[in-house]
Specification:
Blueprint (H helix, E strand, L loop, with lengths): L5 E3 L5 E3 L4 H12 L7 E7 L5 H14 L4 E5 L12 H5 L9 H6 L4 H17 L4 E6 L6 H13 L5 E8 H7 L6 H7 L1 E2 L5 H12 L2 E2 L1 H7 L6 H14 L2 E4 L2 E4 L3 H4 L6 H7 L3 H10 L5 E2 L1 H8 L3 H14 L2 E3 L4 E3 L2 H9 L3 H18 L3 H11 L13 H15 L4 H14 L5 H16 L3 H13 L4 H14 L5 H13 L5 H11 L7 H20 L2 H17 L3 H17 L6 H13 L3 H18 L2 H17 L3 H17 L3 H18 L5 H13 L4 H18 L2 H8 L2 H8 L6 H16 L3 H17 L3 H15 L2 H13 L3 H15 L4 H18 L2 H13 L18 H10 L5 H8 L3 H15 L4 H10 L6
Parallel strand pairs: 3-6, 3-7, 4-5, 5-6, 8-10
Antiparallel strand pairs: 1-2, 9-10, 11-13, 12-13
Helix pairs in contact: 5-6, 9-11, 11-13, 14-16, 14-17, 18-19, 19-20, 19-21, 20-21, 21-22, 22-23, 22-24, 23-24, 24-25, 26-27, 26-28, 27-28, 28-29, 28-30, 29-30, 30-31, 30-32, 31-32, 32-33, 32-34, 33-34, 33-48, 34-35, 34-36, 35-36, 36-37, 39-40, 39-41, 40-41, 41-42, 42-43, 43-44, 44-45, 46-48, 47-48
Length: 947
């Protein structure tokens, strides 16, 4: 770009983007990717007034001139010609038409639906038959749905011809990205707008003044400190005041303007002083409405007639203070709006703010706008001020706004809750109850520190027992990562409180059975359940009893008392049927897990697919998350590595979408690492290692165990014996081996892997501890998997072929091909010295099983063992078609060529939509295509899809 490029502002004067050559070149390069059918993702950061919007407008105009559809979102705005307030509205614009306007109008930001709306947006963009430029300006003001989509979709649609340009204030990005995966990398790749250098400042002024500024004007411009908004404000003031003169292309001052106006360093506020009185009054009054507003709102707010405000509006448009967005007006910048509001008399400002809130309430406006206006209406705590609402009136406004905002915008709801607490009396039952209500809102908004402080304040304020139990449960959840002792103390105190609600008592039991620390789980199972059982049974409350039966089932499941767990689940189901309630998804999860543990993985898969479909239809995100994680484990059991990998990736995406990535990431990462043990996976340690290391240092036992286990798997893949030895000798694994037998079917088979590792590292005493645990597990359950693992562990330790063959037979009966292959391979190693023929036969059996699973890494190892015995390895039998697609992927393709949507494919195959879209992305990558139409053309050309 040459530095003389500019865009024309609303006042008809060229508003330059001087000094942005490097930044504009990067944006142009990204947009040019669309010509090759490629994608790009650009983050633009800068402080308020740095010129982000101007830069984006320039890029949008260039794209439109090149006939590229542009979906422009100016967050927090009002839909208008070419500009939308949300991503859904932008994608429904005529030039894009990815979705229809009716669908866009339905897409709210409610927590329950947000994840599914993102899937709808993903599917809509993926279906587009043309490239598109998506620009989101001021992401910090965006609704929750747009923010989630801006984070998730650029990654998911990486193979679609879409360029994403997202602008955000630097400070806001840093605050929101504190715990975000990949935030540091995103910041390194971002376009960060610096302040303008001196040369660029003078060029901006020259664009507005019509000539090069002389030395005197340049001195005045130095007050702008290189911030583009201030530079343009200075220059426009000089121009509009008529104090400059042009001679030979140089602009100078006609009067001693600087001497007359010593406060020249505040140009934004001074611009209002140059307006006529009606225009100034209109701008100041409109400022309480927010950055964007309509003429109808201004008329209602001021009580004027349309004819009275037309001329002032035109003056504000000419001055550049307001912009016409086609049906709506907006201030040039939030800095300009704030400056206008600050000039209002205190009493008038308070009255106008309350009137602005009332307008939003009457008109049924956007929840986000209504909430923001409510906060401004009750900003002051000194209610003696003229025009300020009384404390009672302010509290009524906040509580009224909460009824609208609570389910729409978690962050704004938290702001309102915080203000509500400030308005309440500092003592008394009302404040304590409000604190109890506020804690879950703060948790939902991710404000952990505030939630923790509220819980502690509430306890100190002498809550009633039920309120205190709720607060202590919240504290127990909040302290698990860094204060496990505090977790236990809060649960112990809660158990001794005279709780009235049996349902709350049952919830306390449920929370107490979770593995917050490596030793507390076992105490909870023995101490918490008996303490609660008496209270719940005495209450004779079917809801509480059903909840408690589920808790007992969980406890029994972790103790491997699977028969008792089945009985508890059955009792809970019967009680639920009597009360007319539907079975909880968690009960379904336990039942499916039991099927898996007792050796019926195919039945478990059929059952979990039905439950996933139901959760998807009911739009239960948390249920879907956990059900899909179990499904990934079942697929791993069955040796369906491709599907397990896809499902695990889908779980990670879903967890990130709903803010639960910390909870489930460890499970998904562990599955991905187990897939990599059997299959050649490039860069697996680089991709999964950081997550595994993060969890390995966690203070929560289940997460630390998962992290350490995954680190061992990755070290084994990389041949890193040092890490393996460190982890196998670690204190945590000592407690795992010596402790009671806990965990599901995955933990059972993990013990075989662990036994093999400790034997290879010369620690037979550790292996014997595993054997002791396996014997105890086999004693308390008749499940085949437990007895197969015992045979396998003993066979490894003693080198006993008969026990290893017995293990292989058990695994065969319960459809565990990878485990069976491992048993045959271990048998071959045990027989390799004395009976090479038996050893070779066992290896061939393992080869057949691994070939059916496409376990390339394990196959290579088995083939090497066969060659060492002088045997030729069997030919590998591929399970993929001519294009390298698996059977599961081919099923997806078969439905896609019928032009079915992801939702329709999911319904037919009993999958969730996010699993289908994850499959489609993998298929696109394998076929090197960027759209569904290209995929259909490729598969039909190779004859692997119906025509």
């Amino acid at each position: 770009m040459s530095d003389d490029e500019a865009v024309v502002g609303s006042d008809g004067v060229a508003t330059s983007i001087r000094g942005r050559a490097t930044e504009l070149a990067r944006l142009r390069q990204a947009v040019s990717a669309l010509g090759g059918g490629k994608s790009a993702h650009v983050l633009v950061l800068g402080e308020p007034g740095a010129g982000k919007s101007t830069l984006l407008d320039f890029v949008c105009e260039e794209a439109r001139a090149a006939s590229i559809p542009v979906a422009l979102v100016r967050a927090g705005g009002i839909p208008s010609a070419g500009v939308a307030a949300t991503l859904a509205e932008a994608l429904s614009a005529p030039n894009v038409a990815a979705i229809d306007t009716a669908t866009a109008a339905q897409m709210d930001s409610s927590v329950e639906l947000r994840y599914w709306w993102v899937q709808e947006l993903e599917a809509a963009i993926e279906r587009l038959a043309q490239p598109v430029l998506v620009v989101i300006d001021d992401l910090q003001f965006a609704d929750e749905l747009t923010r989630l989509a801006a984070r998730a979709l650029p990654l998911r649609l990486g193979r679609s011809p879409v360029v994403w340009v997202v602008a955000q204030r630097t400070k806001d990005f840093e605050q929101r990205s504190t715990h975000s995966r990949g935030a540091s990398a995103a910041l390194e790749d971002a376009i960060v707008l610096p302040r303008l250098d001196e040369h660029a400042v003078f060029e901006v002024a020259a664009d507005i003044l019509g000539g090069a500024p002389n030395t005197e004007i340049r001195t005045l411009l130095a007050h702008a400190d290189g911030l583009p908004l201030r530079v343009t404000s200075y220059a426009r003031e000089l121009r509009d005041a008529g104090v400059t003169q042009l001679s030979d292309g140089v602009v100078s001052l006609a009067v001693d303007y600087a001497g007359e106006h010593e406060d020249f360093a505040d140009p934004v506020e001074r611009r209002f002083g140059l307006l006529s009185l009606p225009a100034r009054q209109l701008a100041l009054s409109a400022s309480v409405l927010g950055l964007q507003f309509t003429l109808t709102e201004v008329l209602a707010l001021t009580g004027q007639r349309a004819g009275q405000i037309l001329e002032p509006v035109e003056e504000l448009l000419r001055s550049g203070i307001l912009h016409d967005s086609g049906g709506a007006l907006e201030f040039e910048h939030e800095i300009v709006r704030s400056a206008a509001e600050a000039q209002l008399d205190e009493g008038k400002r308070n009255l106008l703010r309350r009137a602005a809130y009332a307008l939003s309430r009457e008109d049924g406006g956007r929840p986000t706008t209504l909430g923001q206006r409510a906060l401004r209406a009750v900003e002051h705590t000194e209610f003696e001020e003229t025009g300020a609402p009384s404390r009672a009136d302010a509290l009524a406004i906040v509580e009224d706004a909460l009824t609208i905002v609570l389910d729409e915008d978690a962050s704004l709801a938290a702001d309102l809750i915080e203000r509500r607490l400030q308005l309440l009396d500092v003592s008394g039952a009302g404040l304590r109850a409000a604190m109890a209500d506020a804690i879950p809102v703060m948790l939902h908004a991710g404000r952990m520190a505030e939630a923790r402080e509220l819980a502690r304040r509430g306890i100190a304020a002498n809550m009633d027992p039920d309120e205190e139990v709720a607060a202590r449960l919240a504290l127990a959840q909040l302290t698990t990562l860094d204060e496990p002792r505090a977790t236990r103390e809060n649960l112990d105190v809660a158990l001794r409180l005279p709780v009235k609600s049996p349902v709350l008592k049952a919830r306390l039991a449920a929370l107490s059975t979770r593995p917050y620390t490596s030793d507390y789980l076992y105490d909870a199972l023995e101490l918490v359940l008996p303490a609660v059982r008496e209270t719940v049974l005495a209450a004779n409350d079917d809801v509480a009893l059903s909840t408690f039966e589920h808790v007992e089932a969980i406890a029994a499941f972790h103790r491997h008392e699977w028969a008792f767990a089945r009985e508890a689940i059955s009792r809970a189901e019967e009680r639920g049927q009597r009360t007319g309630g539907s079975e909880s998804w968690f009960a379904s999860l336990i039942r499916v897990s039991l099927l898996r543990c007792v050796g019926r993985p195919l039945d478990a898969l059929l059952s979990i697919d039905r439950e996933i479909r139901a959760a998807d239809e009911r739009r239960q995100a948390l249920a879907l998350l956990h059900l899909q994680l179990v499904r990934a484990n079942i697929l791993l059991d069955l040796g369906r590595l491709d599907e397990a990998e896809i499902q695990a990736e889908a779980v990670r995406e879903l967890g990130e979408d709903i803010g639960a990535e910390w909870t489930v990431d460890v499970g998904a990462v562990s599955i991905l690492a187990q897939v990599a043990v059997h299959r050649d996976t490039p860069d697996v340690r680089d991709r999964l290692g950081p997550a595994a290391a993060r969890f390995a240092e966690d203070k929560v036992a289940s997460q630390r165990l998962g992290g350490e286990w995954t680190e061992m798997l990755l070290a084994d893949i990389a041949g890193d014996r040092t890490t393996i030895e460190m982890r196998t000798r670690g204190d945590h694994y000592r407690s795992r081996i010596l402790g009671p037998p806990v965990g599901g079917a995955s933990d059972v088979l993990d013990d075989v892997y662990f036994t093999r590792l400790v034997l290879e590292n010369g620690m037979p005493e550790r292996a014997r501890k595993v054997e002791s645990m396996a014997r105890e597990r086999a004693r308390i359950t008749e499940a085949p998997i437990a007895h197969g693992v015992l045979d396998h562990v003993v066979g490894l330790i003693d080198g006993d072929p008969r026990r290893l063959e017995s293990a292989a037979r058990v695994y065969n009966e319960i459809s565990r091909p990878l485990a069976e292959a491992a048993a045959w391979e271990d048998l071959a190693v045990a027989q390799s010295v004395g009976d090479s023929a038996t050893s070779a036969d066992a290896l061939r059996r393992a080869h057949t099983l691994l070939s059916s699973c496409d376990a390339t890494r394990s196959l290579a190892r088995v083939e090497g063992r066969l060659r060492d015995l002088g045997e030729r390895p069997p030919v590998r039998v591929s399970t993929r078609n001519a294009l390298g697609l698996t059977a599961a992927e081919q099923r997806i393709v078969d439905r896609a060529v019928r032009n079915e949507t992801a939702a329709e494919i999911a319904a037919f195959l009993y999958l969730s939509r996010n699993t289908v879209t994850a499959h489609l992305r993998r298929i696109y990558a394998k076929l090197d295509v960027r759209s569904r139409q290209q995929m259909i053309e490729v598969v039909r050309a190779h004859g692997v899809a119906p025509r």
